[in-house]
Every structure is written in C-alpha cells, then in structure tokens.
Amino acid sequence: MDERCIPIPSRTLGVTLFQEQILKVAMEMAGFTGSEADESRRAMAFKRSDERMREVTEKLHARMTERGVSKENQAKVIQAVGSLALYGFPESTPFPLSFWPTQPAI
Fold first, then answer.
1. pTM for this entry
2. What are the boundaries of each domain within the chain?
C-alpha cells in the first residue's frame, strides 16, 4: 500500500475494517472531497448496487491516475474498496454489538 495510507488502518492493526477508513483512503489517494467520499460510502452500503460500485471504482481509478498513483497501488485500493463493500461496516457498530450480549436479561 502507498505510504500515505499506512496510518489510516493503524487503530485496527493494519486491517481496513471500517467504512470510515476506506473513505480516508479515497480522500488521501484520489483527492476525494468529504461529500465524494460519503457518496462512495453510500454506494458500498446495505443496498449496494453493482452499477454504483462500478461508477465509484472508475472515479477512483481516474482520480488516482491524475494524482500519479502507481497502477499497483491503484489496484490495491480498488481491491480494498470492493472487499470492504462486502464485509465492512461503520466504526460505530462494533461497540453496541459487543456490549449488548453482556447485559443480563431483565
């Protein structure tokens, strides 16, 4: 991965788990604005459409090329976006999911 992205998944031991992390990668590597990154998050969300994901990856590809990102790093970012779209979730989700089972039934 590109050096600019190394600090982004540091809280999760180098693994990109959260949607917010991939948004930061898009902003850092492709120069996405906050609203463009949020648009990509929505494309990866619950009712993910292949058409919207294709549009996001094409835009990422074009913008990374403009910024001089190597083809190898572009492929890694695109692969991470696609993978995260399948299993990623918002950073706010894990706490309630881990906290709830520990509460006694009343």
1. 0.72
2. 3-102
Helices (H), the chain: 19-30, 34-44, 50-66, 71-87, 94-99
Pair 40, 26: CB distance under 8 Å: yes
Q: Using one digit for the tens of pLDDT, what is the confidence trace for 41-93?
A: 888 776 667 888 888 889 999 999 999 999 999 998 888 888 777 776 666 65
Question: Do 16 and 8 touch, CB atoms closer than 8 A?
Answer: yes
Residue 10, CA distances (Å) to 7, 54, 95 in order: 5, 28, 18
In the chain, the amino acid numbered 71 is K
Q: What is the pLDDT of residue 69?
A: 92
- Number of neighbouring beta carbons within 10 Å of residue 18: 21
Structure tokens given for 80:
């991470």
Whole-number Å distance between alpha carbons of 69 and 31: 11
Cβ contacts of 34 within 8 Å, gap of 6 or more: 27
